[in-house]
Amino acid sequence: MFAGKRLAALADHLELLGQRFETKLTEAAQLPAGLSPSQWSQIAEVPARLDRIEQRLEEIVQYFAHHLAVISNSQSTYLGDQTALTRLRSGQSIYVDTRSVDLGSHLLQTGLWEEGYMKLFSRLIRPDDTVLDIGANHGVYSMAAALAAGPRGAIHAFEPNSRLARLVRGSLAINGYGGFAQVHQVAVSDAEGETILSFDPAWSGGGHIGEGGGGHEREAQPCRVVRIDDLFPDTAFRADVIKMDVEGFEGRAIRGMLRLLERSSTVKMMMEFAPAMMGRSGVTAEETVRMLRQLGFRFWSIHHDGSIVPEPVVDCAVGPDTVRNILVSRQDID
Hints:
This protein is of the alpha/beta class. It has helices spanning about 1-30, 35-75, 105-110, 115-125, 140-150, 160-175, 230, 250-255, 260-265, 275-280, 285-295, 315-320; strands at about 75-80, 85, 95, 130-135, 155-160, 180-185, 185-190, 195-200, 205-210, 220-225, 240-245, 270-275, 300, 310, 325-330. The chain has an eight-stranded mixed sheet with strand order 6-5-4-11-12-15-13-14, sandwiched between helices. A hairpin with a 5-residue loop joins strand 13 and strand 14. The chain is elongated and about 95 Å long. InterPro entries: FkbM_mtfrase (IPR006342), SAM-dependent_MTase (IPR052514), SAM-dependent_MTases_sf (IPR029063).
């Protein structure tokens, strides 16, 4: 609010300067013709000076408008119980766990998360699409999916962390998406059962199911594990877009949804691809690529700005041991 008043005052001041210059011009036009060359030169410079002032004013207005938009979109309200309500750059409201120093802090400060990837994700979704967000975390991708697919679409968010699942459910409801967006408080893999979810509330994106996920500052809670094919047995059910980030369990999750992928002929899937983590989960990067190739999928690497480039299968399977994001589809991507 203070910055907005300063911007308005600055604009008023510059407008007053312009009016003064125009007055001087009028007065100059009424002066006797016998002015010196230097006086006429000063008068002739007035329009150019006014143009420069106008240009500078436009630059100042754009500068303040950008920063005021950031401030407006990052307005947050602390609700207690380590929970805040903030606003995404899209204008949607979202609940945030204030302990989260990775995703949560970005949402509170900027209203953005993985901006380039989000642009690509939203571009893949068409009105009325069915979208699966596997590893929803705070639900940023689920919110984008709901906005892009609209009320005739269907959004399924999967998040095993009970607190985060509750926040996602609240965010979807407060934005009016509750009628077509559903939160499944489960982990996704290739076998149904019960396990333990280990996580550090400060790093909400690093939850891990099963053995070997603990740490000295981690919390743990019981967790149900499901196969996507068991959850959606109806052969009429199709997925149009899938986003998956499950900390190395991508291969096992794919193995548990082979029937859905097979019958979803136009599905496009964005997924995190981390060979080291995938190997520890029991299904390697090579095995994951082999499954997807057998289903007819092609591969693209996703750059941070959301642009994509074709990815040779061999590079995807045995490339550098880094964490990256890939896109798979049977069709060309516009």
